[in-house]
Design a protein that fits this description.
This protein is an alpha+beta fold and 362 residues long. It has 2 domains: 2-234, Rossmann fold; 241-359, RNA polymerase II/Efflux pump adaptor protein, barrel-sandwich hybrid domain (OB fold (Dihydrolipoamide Acetyltransferase, E2P)), CATH 2.40.50. Helices cover 27% and strands 37% of the residues. It has 10 helices and 20 strands. It has helices at residues 45-52, 73-81, 97-107, 114-124, 140-153, 170-187, 198-204, 222-227, 232-237, 332-337, and strands at 5-16, 19-30, 34-38, 60-65, 68-69, 83-86, 158-162, 190-195, 207-212, 215-221, 242-252, 255-260, 263-268, 276-281, 287-289, 300-311, 315-321, 325-331, 345-350, 356-359. Strands 6-7-8-3-9-10 form a 6-stranded mixed sheet, with helices on both faces. It has a 5-stranded antiparallel sheet with strand order 13-12-11-14-20. Strands 15-19-16-17-18 form a 5-stranded antiparallel sheet. The two termini are 42 Å apart. The model has no long low-confidence stretch (mean pLDDT 92).
């Protein structure tokens, strides 16, 4: 493998019923890393996942696995024998948990250490005490753990997971994500996960590919994609809840003054005066106070009116009017300390480096 790349995709096109559902210019899957495919429903995440697993036959382009071009049915069979797929639904047989986890090993003729492999996988996901229970008597979380154990029992080089945490209650979801993260770190198995959940993505991903309409819009490390989105769609999808249209008024040594409505936002970047841009701000980067705080290193301070306070569980989401709309997150304790209510006057502040600026194409 070149540069530790397990799988490569180049100019891949997948058509189904005369409709192009995938058009992927380039994608690299790095060995031992977790790649998360994110995007809205219908973006093509599941189709790409199944194509990478050798379960869907593409019409154009190249798919290389360990330097081998996957062309024939024999090649796809080799690929499929080296990977496991976990579907959104658990898809368990009406058998015991043990027999379900052993199923893939038996189908692939891996009978030498079947007992040890099954017991190890059951232990990984904390369901070893359920080995003799019927799969029909499992809870949703237990069934998901069993389906994951079945996939890991095969000791695959590549595991592909399609929305693996959907339809689970939050505590169950949290526990399974923790276990999956720990096991992937221990085993160094390469993983590709399809998801639409930002929090899951940030917790698990080394690399992130944002998809829409069958294409990859942006790919990079999780930090790059979430903090440096390439366009408005990506910014909106990864959680930059404030996206403002502006015009660069001036740029001196990488410090831009950007006019947004009748306000001026200071930001870092290399756009020239007169360029039309978007200013993208993540809500966790906004500071809220009752008055301007000199102790802050922020360069942007705006008097604001609290329009709405939304309870988001562990924090509150504030909808602010600064002469432009602004969304901020604030802890429950901070909200109580400031006695914040709707229609209150506050000061919103943020650093110049917290503003991600994107050129507007139109």
């Amino acid at each position: 493998m070149t540069n530790n790349i397990l799988m490569q995709v180049n100019n891949l096109v997948l058509d189904r019923r005369s409709v192009t559902v995938l058009d992927i210019e380039k994608l690299n899957v790095t060995a031992g890393k977790i790649l998360v495919l994110i995007g809205p429903n219908g973006a093509g995440k599941s189709s790409l996942l199944l194509t990478l697993a050798g379960l869907l036959k593409f019409q154009k382009g190249r798919l290389n696995y360990q330097g081998i071009s996957i062309k024939s049915g024999k090649d796809r069979l080799m690929l499929r024998r080296n990977c496991s797929v976990v579907f959104q639904e658990s898809l368990l047989l009406d058998e015991t948990v043990y027999k379900n986890v052993a199923l893939g090993l038996k189908l692939r003729g891996k009978n030498n250490n079947i007992k040890a492999d099954v017991e190890e996988a059951l232990y990984y996901f904390g369901v070893n005490n359920l080995a003799q229970r019927s799969a029909r008597n499992l809870s949703g979380g237990e069934a998901k753990r069993v389906s994951l154990a079945r996939a890991f029992a095969l000791k695959p080089q590549l595991i592909l997971l399609d929305e693996p945490f959907s339809s689970l209650d939050p505590p169950t979801n949290e526990g399974i994500i923790d276990d999956l993260q720990r096991i992937l770190e221990k085993t160094k198995i390469t993983a590709v996960i399809a998801s639409h959940n930002r929090e899951e993505t940030l917790r698990l991903a080394h690399d992130v590919a944002v998809m829409n309409n069958g294409k990859i819009i942006q790919i990079g490390t999780a930090a790059e994609v979430f903090n440096q989105p390439v366009n408005e769609f990506v910014a909106d999808f990864v959680g930059a809840e404030t996206i403002l249209e502006g015009i660069v008024k001036s740029n001196h040594d990488g410090i831009m003054m950007i006019t947004v409505k009748d306000k001026t936002i200071e930001a870092t970047g290399n756009y020239a005066g007169g360029e039309k841009v978007y200013c993208c701000l993540r809500p966790e980067n906004i500071m809220i106070s009752r008055e301007i705080q000199n102790k802050y290193s922020a360069r942007n301070f705006f008097p604001a009116k609290v329009k709405k306070v939304h309870n988001q569980g562990i924090f509150n989401k504030l909808i602010l009017d600064c002469g432009f709309p602004l969304v901020a997150y604030i802890t429950k304790n901070s909200c109580e300390d400031l006695s914040l209510q709707e229609d209150d006057s506050v000061v919103a502040s943020f650093k110049a480096t917290a503003v991600h600026v994107i050129r507007r194409e139109k």
